[in-house]
Structures are given as C-alpha cells and as structure tokens.
Design brief:
Blueprint lengths: L1 H27 L4 E4 L5 E6 L6 E6 L4 E7 L5 E4 L5 E6 L2 E6 L2 E10 L1
Antiparallel strand pairs: 1-2, 1-8, 2-3, 3-4, 4-5, 5-6, 6-7, 7-8
Length: 111
C-alpha cells in the first residue's frame, strides 16, 4: 500500500513538472522580431501573452506600444483600442500606421 502511494505521488509530481515545462517552453520559445524600416527607422516586436494575441512594439524613438491582435484579411494585424495605431505584418515584412499615417514603412525582418 505504501509503495502504491509513493508511485502515485511520483506520477503526480512528474505530471506537474511536465505540464509546467511544456507551458514554459511554449511561451519562452517566442522570440523578439526585429525590423529595419525605411528612412533609418527600426522597431521590434515580442509577444506578451501565452496566447500570442498581444504584442509589445518598441520603436526606435523609444516609445513602447502594447497592441492586441485584430481581424485581418491577410497577414497579422495588431491594434490599440481605438485602432489609431496599427501594426501589420505579412511574411517577413511589416508596417506601422499612426492616425492613418504610415509612420514605419517598408519594414523587413532582420536577424
């Protein structure tokens, strides 16, 4: 009986560790993506939630934006609450608009 309890406890601990590691590696494998844009500008993005629906965008003028994924016909689109800021990426390219003006254009992923 004591041996069964020990095996059960070991199985529970092992399961918890495995689930924790899966969650950890699923979220931490997400990397930042750096972009070089036209006119000497740059930005980088990184996911800030496990569901990968929110990103942080850091602009080369030191501003940081937190945007949420929204509907896109093509590519991936992230916006602030009133959609005055939009970050749109497709493949290895991206752009950012502020107040309907493209402020970061022709952005291309860099390593």
């Amino acid at each position: 009986m004591k041996q069964k309890k020990s095996l059960y406890a070991l199985a529970v601990v092992t399961g918890v560790l495995i689930l924790g590691l899966v969650g950890y590696f699923t979220f931490t494998k997400t990397k930042s993506i750096y972009y070089s844009c036209a006119n000497g500008k740059s930005l980088n993005t990184s996911f800030i939630d496990k569901q990968m629906t929110k990103i942080r965008v850091v602009l080369n003028d030191s501003r940081e934006l937190e945007l949420t994924q929204s509907i896109a016909a093509s590519g991936t689109r992230y916006t602030n609450s009133d959609e005055s800021v939009v970050f749109w990426s497709k493949g290895t390219t991206a752009f950012l608009t502020e107040q309907n003006i493209e402020t970061y254009t022709n952005c291309v992923e860099r390593n």
